[in-house]
Design a protein that fits this description.
Distance between the termini: 68 Å
Structural class: alpha+beta
Mean pLDDT: 80
Shape: elongated
Largest sheet: 4 strands, antiparallel
Order of helices and strands: HHEEEEHEEEEHHH
Helix content: 25-40%
Number of strands: 8
Oligomer: single chain
Length: 257
């Protein structure tokens, strides 16, 4: 029988094979990192193109609050002395609530609304949420849903709120604060599409708000590593034969002189 020849790798004193970084190792890592980052680069390009393509007038409301102000009606107002005194008030705002003047009382326990003409408390119920939302959009209202916390669409705001869904082509939803009855923001299908591609673009798959999170930082340093190793592999790929044309040109120039 033929004897099998086994060539063992050189061993260190501890019996471990030393790890040497070679162009082959860098090439293998470069290939897999390039595949992973290449997918993200494609997502960046597609999401950026889609956000630029969408009609920004229909997107609207991605962070701004619409304000519809009216002049307060004339007439008598309830005196401040008649306002509730069961809590320590830290601030008072007189404002319009759909041609209805109200006092907005702020305290450490939250906000309460008081009718500025009668002194009675105003409950921010479903009917009031419908009234406020209807002032912002003229489509028929489909449903009204209470929310204890903000969702992704209303993430720029805090506290309990009402979600008022309209029966229109954009499936528009208006958000109204359950504490102050203030209109917060309006969202539609075009904005939801924009927000999905925004999530892909900034790689914030949870909150969709931050550019300063570990995932995008890793992607940034990964791209930097790709550029450095790519330049290294490009340099290592050259051979002396690749520069023969330069040597031939120098010899030709030397003969001419």
């Amino acid at each position: 029988m033929a004897a099998r020849l086994v060539v063992s790798a050189p061993q260190e004193e501890e019996g471990m094979t030393p790890v040497r970084l070679s162009p082959l190792v860098f090439r293998r890592i470069h290939r897999w990192v390039g595949l992973i980052l290449g997918i993200q680069f494609l997502l960046w390009a597609v999401s950026g193109a889609m956000m630029a393509t969408l009609d920004m007038d229909k997107v609207g409301g991605h962070g701004d609050v619409m304000h519809h102000s009216h002049s307060l009606p004339e007439g008598g107002y309830a005196g401040l002395a008649a306002l509730p005194r069961d809590v320590a008030v830290t601030g008072i705002v007189l404002r319009d609530l759909g041609f209805r003047p109200v006092y907005e009382l702020h305290s450490k326990d939250g906000v309460r609304l008081i009718d500025a003409t009668t002194g009675e408390r105003v409950e921010v119920d479903e009917d009031l949420a419908r009234t406020v939302a209807a002032m912002m959009h003229d489509a028929p209202i489909r449903t009204v849903t209470p929310m204890d916390n903000a969702n992704l669409e209303s993430r720029d705001f805090a506290g309990p709120m009402w979600r008022v869904d309209f029966a229109d082509a954009e499936n528009t939803s208006a958000y109204v604060s359950r504490e102050t009855a203030r209109f917060l923001v309006m969202r539609g299908d075009t904005w939801r599409t924009w927000d999905f591609f925004w999530m892909l673009h900034n790689m914030d798959y949870v909150n969709r708000t931050s550019f300063n999170h570990p995932l995008i930082i890793i992607a940034g340093f990964g791209a930097l590593w790709m550029a450095g190793t790519g330049f290294y592999l490009l340099f290592k790929s050259f051979r002396r034969a690749d520069f023969n044309w330069l040597r031939r040109r120098r010899r030709a120039d030397a003969r001419q002189t």
